[in-house]
């Protein structure tokens, strides 16, 4: 017997939570509102009280993931309010930690083909709401503006600096979360050692 006792907002949260798990397991083609409803223990019509269709639910799942990711990056920045260099290092560590602890988010945001299936309107919604990458980018912009240097070895091109920082932490996150890099010790401590060394920034 289906459970219709969810509070209005609780059901919406459960649909997003279980929807993420199903989307990760099933992929876009096999994902359906009916399956999400079953996972939540409600009638197959209940999800439509909150979402028009499966694409609408997928957008909500993606925005929830980006909001959670962005919040973790912002918390990292807030730990060092007066030290932009430490902000970037801590943000990089948090970037890796977030995806290592939530590999389903890594697959959702970077390794899925959702944009191929979503219509242009939905793709624009996602494009306009990309908060975490704006947070990452803007922090590096502030770092560069505050640390202009004439050293020959410094990176003065903003795009090059963003790519170097993002490429490093994203690459580490992927290698650890997919277990392609085998290491007997603590992966996150190793990551912190790399990012807090003098060779990074």
Automatic annotation (TrEMBL):
Pfam families given in the database record: TetR_C_33 (PF13305), TetR_N (PF00440)
Key word Mitochondrion present: no
HTH tetR-type domain: residues covered: 9-69
DNA-binding region: 32-51
MF GO annotations: DNA binding
Keyword Transcription regulation: yes
Transmembrane regions: none
InterPro entries, per the entry: Homeodomain-like_sf (IPR009057), HTH-type_Tx_Regulator (IPR050624), HTH_TetR (IPR001647), MT1864/Rv1816-like_C (IPR025996), Tet_transcr_reg_TetR-rel_C_sf (IPR036271)
Organism superkingdom: Bacteria
Assigned keywords, A-Z: DNA-binding, Transcription, Transcription regulation
Protein name as it appears in the record: Transcriptional regulator, TetR family
